[in-house]
Design brief:
With about 230 residues, the chain is an alpha/beta fold. Helix content is about 45%, strand content about 15%. It has a four-stranded parallel beta sheet with strand order 3-4-5-6, with helices on both faces. The longest helix has 29 residues. It starts with a helix and ends in a 10-residue tail after the last strand.
Length: about 230
């Protein structure tokens, strides 16, 4: 919604096409222009078809926000190779797959921005989360590599790393009694991050106001990662 408020034409990609359709209706209710596309980021043909549809509808992509992700909990000694590979294929390889497909039109024009959503788990190991922390650490380096290689061709690449955020993926944690209060108390700002907090930073990184910012990671966690000494 923040991109819509800034006047952007928004394309929503998700395995859940119905959820995308519902969000498009919300965007149109705001007076925005949006397109919903079912897409599997683990499938080359699916991502390629989505990129072609965006090219046809809007003449290409100016900003890509990579945000697909899953969590497969488990100890490292127990996690199956299938779960490990599935998580990496979505959380890491899916980002590259989308950046390649949607980045071609950017590279051809010599302009564009990629914003990759990682996590504070990229730098702080997250217990019992299998490949999650390694995948997010790799996303940060993927973005830096992209900034290095594509910067001379007009492409910027940056990372937003959220802390504790209340989303559908994490909602189950917050349903347990007392979890919300305990987690909020551990954060210097005394509140859980919202998706809007992340969107605000993503919009900044995508905009001309960040025109000379690339290869960077912005942590949005209310100061949680600075509380080690507490």
């Amino acid at each position: 919604n923040e991109f819509v408020r800034c006047g952007a034409k928004v394309v929503l990609l998700d395995l859940d096409a119905d959820a995308c359709d519902a969000m498009v209706e919300e965007v149109k209710g705001m007076g925005g222009d949006a397109l919903a596309l079912g897409c599997d980021v683990t499938n080359d043909e699916s991502v390629g078809a989505a990129a072609a549809a965006v090219e046809q509808a809007y003449g290409g992509c100016d900003v890509l926000v990579n945000n697909a992700g899953i969590l497969r909990p488990g100890k490292l000694e127990d996690i199956s190779m299938a779960d490990w590979q599935k998580l990496l294929d979505i959380n890491l390889t899916g980002y590259l797959r989308c950046s390649q497909a949607f980045g071609r039109s950017m590279l051809a024009r010599g302009a564009g921005a990629h914003v990759h959503v990682a996590s504070i788990a990229a730098s702080e190991p997250q217990a019992l989360s299998g490949a999650y922390s390694p995948s997010k650490a790799a996303v940060v380096m993927l973005s830096r590599q992209m900034a290095f290689e594509w910067g001379p061709r007009g492409i910027r690449s940056n990372v937003v790393s959220p802390g504790l955020v209340r989303t559908p993926l994490s909602e189950a944690f917050y349903q347990a009694p007392g979890v919300l209060e305990r987690r909020a108390q551990a954060i210097p700002t005394r509140r859980i991050c919202t998706p809007e907090d992340i969107a605000d930073v993503a919009v900044f990184l995508a905009s001309v106001r960040a025109g000379h910012v690339t290869g960077q990671e912005i942590v949005v966690d209310g100061g949680l990662s600075q509380t080690l000494m507490s």
